[in-house]
Write a structure and sequence with these properties.
Blueprint (H helix, E strand, L loop, with lengths): L15 H6 L3 H8 L3 H5 L11
């Protein structure tokens, strides 16, 4: 796990699923020992959760 913080008035984040989806599929699949098809099925865009 890696956490990096900076003083910035604007909040930004990236989910693990989004990071995996935007990394070359074979790299994610090989690193995590999961099927490439599972990585390719992940959404590439961020979905915000608002109430």
């Amino acid at each position: 796990m890696f956490l990096e913080m900076f003083r910035n008035p604007r909040f930004e984040d990236i989910s693990l699923a989004q990071w995996m989806a935007n990394t070359p599929p074979q790299v994610s699949a090989d690193t995590l020992n999961i099927p490439r098809s599972m990585v390719e099925a992940l959404p590439k865009s961020e979905h915000s959760v608002l109430r």
